[in-house]
Amino acid sequence: MGRSKPHSTESNLVVVSGPSGVGKSTVVRALRERMPDLLFSVSATSRSPRPGEVDGRDYYFVSREEFQRRIAEDRFVEHAEVFGDLYGTPVEELQRAAHAGRMLLLEIDVQGGIQVHGKYRDALLVLLVAPSLEEVRRRLTGRGTESPEVVARRFAQAERELSMARQSGAYNAEVVNDTVDGTVTRIEELIQEYRRSHNDRSPQG
Can you say how many angstroms the Cα of residue 181 is from the centroid of all Cα atoms in its chain? Predict the structure, then answer.
């Protein structure tokens, strides 16, 4: 199978990504409440469901073999392996947003964000960062759900991802997640600016 070609620039995609510990899930949850017209993308994963998770709502749960088959068929907007599990955004999510006439919101890691930039050059990519690396360590430790070894591994990974994101040149803006309300307001402003720019470039009927 040959290399996949870049997809259409009329992507209508908003990506919020960043390393572990920067508060992506909290910010995106608040952003969805503030901007209900955004269509939130559901990711596929090869990992098993956690208690309370529902297939099709939280993730599309598929076997590792099925996930790899879909990779071979170029059926992901982006995909990555994170701590032994595969995650990806199905292309069907883009189609779902297009049919609904809505912007698609992705909450993904840095690897995925860089992949999206490679395929959808007109997407809006926001890099979410913590006020400091020490704050990242505090947030990771504060979860209380992982061993010190796992926290140390995630912190080291967060440092690498932050460096990779900044060096990639893929992101349109970097937003410091100091307070959730302020962070969501800034991302909302970026989306409105993107929409105005996007509409200005659209052919006139």
Answer: 19
